[in-house]
Amino acid sequence: MKAKQWFNLHAWAGLFVGILLLITCLSGTLATLSHEIEYLSDTQFRALTHTSSTDFVAIENTLAQRYPGGQVISIMRHQQPYLATEVSLKWQQQFLFVYVDGATGQWLGEGQWGRVSRFLRNWHMNLSMGWTGKLIVTSLAIVLVILVFTSPIVYRQWWRHFLKKPRQLQTTNRSSWADWHKLLGLWSYWFIVVMAITGVWYLVEHGLQTAKIAHYVTPPATVAQLQSNAEQPLATSTMIGAAQQTFPSLLIRAIQYPTKANKPVVVLGDNDDILVRLRANKVYLDAASAQVLAVQKAAELPLLARIKDTADPLHFGNFAGLGTKLIWAVFGFLMTCICMAGLYMNWLRVKRKQPSLLKWFGVIGVASMLLIGYSLLLTVQTFSVRQAPPTVYSPVLGISQGNN
Fold first, then answer.
1. DSSP three-state, residue 265
2. 386 and 88 Cβ atoms separated by less than 8 Å
3. 121 backbone φψ class: left, alpha, beta (φ>0; ψ -120 to 50)
4. Of 224, 251, 230, nearest in space to 240 by CA
């Protein structure tokens, strides 16, 4: 291909769904720091003690005092110690989030399902449109791959321009926008590559899920064939103790109670593995007896399962504390600016021949705008909706049990 053809391919990929890519970059950037945004918005999202230890007994006692008759669906402590521990609770037949200090169990506040992090996650992940929205979002990875591949070809001798001073940005000067577009693209190239790779994985994963092709570790027979009388499940502290005894090196951060019969309690945590999400290390237990059914360790996962558990931390930068999240947010913002500059440059290039903004957008551009508007409206209407499960196989809070 000739240089002009490569340039046209690069420009086409950026313009084809440019506005949709721009919004996806923006929502992803905000989603990266969504819990930090909540932290700044309200004290109930802030832990009082910044330590990594979690006192599940204290949390259980606090819940029993404040929500007698309620049932725990899950307890989850964030990787970042400054964030409050979240408890999903079935309370008076409704779903409720309860926020506590993980180290002391002190009650901090409560709220419904809808919040900033939920809104941004729904919008970024699938435009709040389920299967179709996820296909649209993950398909943008193809556009990113084209942009990643064509950028070094279009920008000749790019390695010489990392420190090149760009021209002063002027509203109607396309060359000045091109300078900034190239400079930001150079410094953000590694990040765009990461987004393209993880995006391609999400697209592949979506295809595997749609085709119902197994691509994760299947729980062993002891879990799959569980026949448990969990009408009187044991307390959280009992479950945590059994899991810790079996998997001593596990830094436990979460527990999930089943909402279906003959399903296990799952205890999750960290085990000094690099780039894996919370669910990579876990212990399966019988809710009625706290018997350990199976243990899963990230270090023992097969390749495909390990990739699946690595994609999220790598995509959102949530693997080394606030530092990496801030780095990902900064480069996510730069990527958003690159998309915006690319669109504006294209408009400046063609507006003399095509002064109509609507015609410049074209059918795809108008469709993208309508899709974004529809998805935003849909997200506003649906992100706060969450019903409590009909049945939760967890202890009823405030009721003493001999096995606790």
1. strand
2. no
3. alpha
4. 251
* 8, 140: one domain: yes
Q: Between β-strands 265-270 and 94-100, what pairing exists: parallel, antiparallel or unpaired?
A: unpaired
Q: Is 77 helix (H, G, I), strand (E, B) or coil?
A: coil
Q: Judge if 131 and 203 occupy the same domain.
A: yes
pLDDT digits 0-9 by tens, 294-332: 999 999 999 999 999 999 999 999 999 999 999 999 999
pTM over 0.90, yes/no: yes
195: Cβ–Cβ under 8 A, 6 or more apart, which residues? 141, 144, 315, 335
Q: What is the pLDDT of residues 164-196, one digit of tens each?
A: 999 999 988 999 999 999 999 999 999 999 999
Which ranges in 155-173 belong to alpha helices (H)? none
Q: Which domain holds residue 293?
A: 224-301
| Distance (Å) of CA 171 to CA 251, 309, 346 | 53, 44, 13
pLDDT exceeds 80 at position 10: yes
- 256 and 356 share a domain? no
Q: Is residue 28 part of a domain?
A: yes
Would residue 254 count as lying in a domain?
A: yes
Residues 204 and 274 in one domain: no
Same domain, 290 and 259: yes
CA neighbor of 239 nearest in space, from 225, 260, 229, 254: 254
Q: Which position has the token pair 């749609």?
A: 210
* Residue 83 within a domain: no
Q: Flag whether 80 is in a domain.
A: no
CB 184 within 8 A of CB 338: yes
Would you state the structure tokens that stand for residue 104, as one six-digit string? 């002391």
Same domain, 174 and 231: no
Q: Are strands 107-111 and 292-296 parallel, antiparallel or unpaired?
A: unpaired
Written as six digits, the tokens of 216 are 């994760």
207 Cβ contact partners less than 8 Å away, ≥ 6 residues apart:
none
